[in-house]
Design a protein that fits this description.
The protein has a single domain (5-364), classed as YVTN repeat-like/Quinoprotein amine dehydrogenase (Methylamine Dehydrogenase, Chain H). Strand 10 (151-158) and strand 11 form a beta hairpin. The chain contains one helix and 29 strands. By secondary structure, it is mostly beta strands. Helices cover 4% and strands 46% of the residues. The termini are far apart.
Length: 367
Amino acid sequence: MSRYRPFLILFAFFLLLTGCNNPSVQSESSTEEVSQEPKIEYEIIQSPYPHLSNNARNVWDMCIFKGSLYIGAGDYDLNLSPSAAYRYDLADKKWYTCGAIPDEQIHRFCVINEELYIPGCDPTGDWSLGNFYKLEGNSFVTHRVIPQGIHCFDLVEHENKLFAALGYTTGSTDFPVAVSDDGGKSFKNVKHSGGKKSDVRVYKLFCHGDELYALNGMEIYRYDGEKFIFEASWKNRFVAGYPYYTRISESAYFKGRTYFSTGYLFHFENPDNLQYTVFENAIVTDLAVYDDRLYVLCAKALENGNYLICLTVSEDGKSFETVKAIEYGLPALSFAKNGRDLYLGIGDISTTDDARKGEILKTEVPE
């Protein structure tokens, strides 16, 4: 379980109050100013998790898959389980349950070979095995097969193998990545070499072109077909601007670069040359590629106590244009796009039990 929640919350609010000072990383990209002209044009879709409290209602991730919107919820820090997954049918505009989730949080959805997965963030059962969930028909099925999988933060397919980014207990000396070469029926630990395993957790795996990378602490490792080998250190360069439970919220491969959000927008072509794009005084909370465009979601604290939620788009990964701006009382932590329809998942990491946490704002963006 995470033991850093109070520090993360205080750190996040410090960054908001100080204007999200820029990390000390050289960047080839210019500073991007998010729009200051909000248009209040949206409808509110209520959360299917009204029984959860505070941050457990947060929409940690969103995914549109085969005509339905899937959303994340739960709190693995405080052990508040969502118990079940829900999907919002985009045609009839109703919520449906779609399988039990015996984990404390749905924090990420992974689409692998046109199938939908949920990594098991924190099992509610014993810790001898970790879980992942696969949508089979209209319901997620539990696959309890990951040794030492106390936390499974990410799932990635690479070279016809399924990799799981894990979090171990502090006593483990293994590298926190497991691999399956039988389609997820069984997993085994992946070895590593070089560098120094500085953390018992790998929060995110990156498919960068034909290569697979894992970030362990501040060190980046590359998979060579058998093990993860040390590639570069991001110490003193890798900065979290809005930390909430996982160090990296989302990533995307676009135009030869891997982009990822930590509250800031980082990117690299070569892991030895980590760079960032600054969105002035704004927190980057999510990103995704749609129709060969890179979309980045930001939230900017306003003097009136609200937030300016901005969705920006880039054709080249270097210059960004705001395509939607909404003023709201809380930031959006996630988004999903379906044609012109845009869905924003509301949430925050404060200790205030705001009833708006878990709401989904539906609006439109230009084609």
